[in-house]
Amino acid sequence: MIYRQLSDGRRRARRLIVLLALVCAFVWVAPASAAVITPVASCQSLATLDLSGNDAEVLTAQVTQLEQHSYCDVTGIISPQTHFDVVLPTATWQGDYLQQGCGGFCGLNAGSQSVNLVDPSRTSLNQASWAPLLNGELVVGADDQGHRAATNSDALWAKNDPQLRVVFGYTSEHSMLMVAKALTRAFYGRGPAYTYFDGVSDGGHEALDLAQRYPGDFNGILAGAPANNWAALVGVDETWQVRANMDPSGHQILTSEKLPALHAAVVRACGDSQGVIRDPRACTFDPASIECPQGTDTPQCLTPAQVTMVRREYRGPTTASGQSLYDGGEPYGSELGWDGWLVQPASDPAAPLDTAAGGLATNYLKYAAYWFNPPNSFTIRNFPFTIAAARALEPLGGIYDATNPDLRAFGAHGGKLIIYHGWADMAIPPQTSLDYYSAVIRFMGGYAATQTFSRLYMIPGLYHCPCGRLGGGDPETHPQFMDQLAAWVERGQPPAAVTFPVTHSTSANPPSAITVTPLNPLANVPHNHGLNSNYHYVLKGLVYSPEHQLWCQQAGPRLVCSRRVM
Fold first, then answer.
1. Residue 433: in which H helix or E strand, if any?
2. What is the DSSP string of 75-136?
3. Sheet arrangement for strand 476-477
4. Which of 73, 271, 336, 549 could form a disulfide with 275 if both were Cys (CB 3.0 to 4.6 A apart)?
5. Judging by DSSP bridges, how do beta strands 82-89 and 96-100 pair with one another?
6. pLDDT, tens digit (0-9, with 9 covering 90-100), for 35-71
7. Tens-digit pLDDT profile for residues 373-404
């Protein structure tokens, strides 16, 4: 007993010594708190900074207060007409740069290039805030992607200007970074230590473009719900979303009033005990299960025409013989997000052409989809859902698409990439990200190889943006991966499971949080008779290959394009 007591005491002493040693070691290796980097030039001096080497010029430079911090706010223009905004902290910068993406066709109006210091992606409306951004620790930049327009669904700017198509397609964000770095060096006497890009939707398309085409630009890239298969997405899928809901007279078949009952039926059929649809590909819900009794039509059921329409939306664009013309369709669980995106209330006589999908599809096909535009009389009702029609969009897809799976240069540079997508995204089918990341895995030599520099997260219940009228998802979460991305880039900590609090749910027994882990899209793929399963996208081999990428430059009045970097 005495020996045991002495031994226990020695063990306790040893443990205490080890603990103290670890504490001392931790204190010794812990880095000092980041020092604030102060300007070496005045904000006013940036107004006359020579940016001719970047084909740019400053329009204004003035000190302003944003989110309770002082910034030098610099606006300007990059040739031919990209308007930019860069804000540089006057007393709180800690050395890094964040560039923010855009949404839709971008453009918007005279203030559209302005940065957002609350949402790190600028346009998603659904990301949680990021402390370093709120605390004024970052230089932040954004632009209008090469043009200004009345709304971000307007593509008239592209009708007769091939060069603006290239700027929108892939050059704007690289040019923006070069200008932001020049301004940072002029203001602080040094450039940023780490550069980050965060974008959602079109911003996610920009993000993947940067990783593929300009692999040395950014240390960390966050691509949310990326619209990377752009030509097929806007030209085929969003056209289908509208046309599937259009009767022979051009009016909508399904109206917003039917969505709550449809969504509730899907959750009952496919949700777990907390009302969460973990993977819509595993769902086998048939809309006919809530078909109205003959001769009736109430908000609680679907008419036969609506059953057919809903099936077509879940399956996505197909040829007359059933061949898939895009990566997926409307995912099970996205139904409440259809409101405003592809359906409108019954009282709206202009629907479905006045939906968000209708505006994007119409503008793209009329003004930006082809080298030679269709006649002014063209409408989306003229688009045929054939393989030939889908292929006819791909020559310009080489400019707009960000589908190159070759990320060797990005990984070799040390870049880190996080892609995330909502399983209930009603605007960009989640299968898009699954197909792209699958192509990356195959090209890069397997899943383990891709994990050295990238992650894919799929978030149950999450809608797009949100772009509908009823919140950001069911369950609603506010994802934000900038903390994980920065930890990976700056401290070598690869992200694993990430948990997001649930802010709203239609379930009577909702979860308090949703946890997501990195997904291997080639593993455990559900195969069943459900409408979200067993896709065979006919242009997958063409689109998701390095050879699809097109590089263009202006040569006098002509645009010269090649499959090689120019």
1. helix 431-444
2. EEEETTTEEEEEEEESS---SEEEEE---TT---STTTT---SSSTTSS-S-PPP-HHHHTT
3. 476-477, 498-504, 513-516
4. 271
5. unpaired
6. 999 999 999 999 999 999 999 999 999 999 999 999 9
7. 999 999 999 999 999 999 999 999 999 999 99
